[in-house]
Amino acid sequence: MHDPKVVAFEVKRPWPVKRAHTLGDTRFYPAIVRIWHVDPETDGTDRSCGRLSYVEGRPWWKHPRWHIWHWEIQIPMLQNFQRWAWGRCSKCGGRFSWGYSPIGPWSGGGPRWFQSERGIYHHGCDRSDMKPQTDSAKG
């Protein structure tokens, strides 16, 4: 099953971020506000609004991107602030630096006001990458 969310609009900031790469410097304009269209999945698929079967003859206001009752607004800088200010590692209790992407479950609820997310870890604190010990290795 696919994610029912698709980006409808992005409001990008007017000044670019410069990134150095081996092939040369690149610039991109990060989003200040991102508006998602969340399909209600009324027919059991993520296409019930017709976003993948758009017909050119349809009036502009019937396009799924204009279903404002299905919109979800995301402000990335606010999410970064919430994680920086209140986010804590579930193992060591340490804070996350600005813009850090911790390891966590896909089903997490995301940052909450004045509370840390549940089940997020620093990359060094998460031990899921280590092989489990067998009985013979325990010795």
Structural description of this entry:
- With 139 residues, the protein is of the alpha+beta class.
- The protein has 2 domains: 1-74, no CATH class; 76-129, no CATH class.
- The protein is 11% helix and 19% strand.
- It is built from 2 helices and 5 strands.
- The protein has a 3-stranded antiparallel beta sheet.
- The radius of gyration is 21 Å and the shape is globular.
- The termini are far apart.
- The model has no long low-confidence stretch (mean pLDDT 76).
Q: Helices and strands: which structural class?
A: alpha+beta
**How many whole angstroms does the radius of gyration measure?**
21 Å
Order of helices and strands: EEEEEHH
Oligomer: single chain
> Could you estimate the helical fraction of the residues in percent?
10-25%
Sketch the major β-sheet: 3 strands, antiparallel
* First and last CA, distance: 44 Å
Strand order of the largest sheet: 1-4-5
Query: Which overall shape is indicated by the principal axes computed on the Cα atoms?
Result: globular
Instruction: Estimate what percentage of residues fall within beta strands.
Output: 15-25%
Mean pLDDT across every amino acid position: 76
Number of helices: 2
Work out the count of structural domains: 2
Count every beta strand, where a strand is a DSSP E run of 2 or more residues.
5
Secondary structure elements and pairings:
Blueprint: E1 5-12, E2 17-19, E3 26-28, E4 31-38, E5 71-74, H1 76-86, H2 135-138
Antiparallel strand pairs: 1-4, 2-3, 4-5
Quick rundown:
This protein is α+β, with helices and mostly antiparallel strands and 139 residues long.
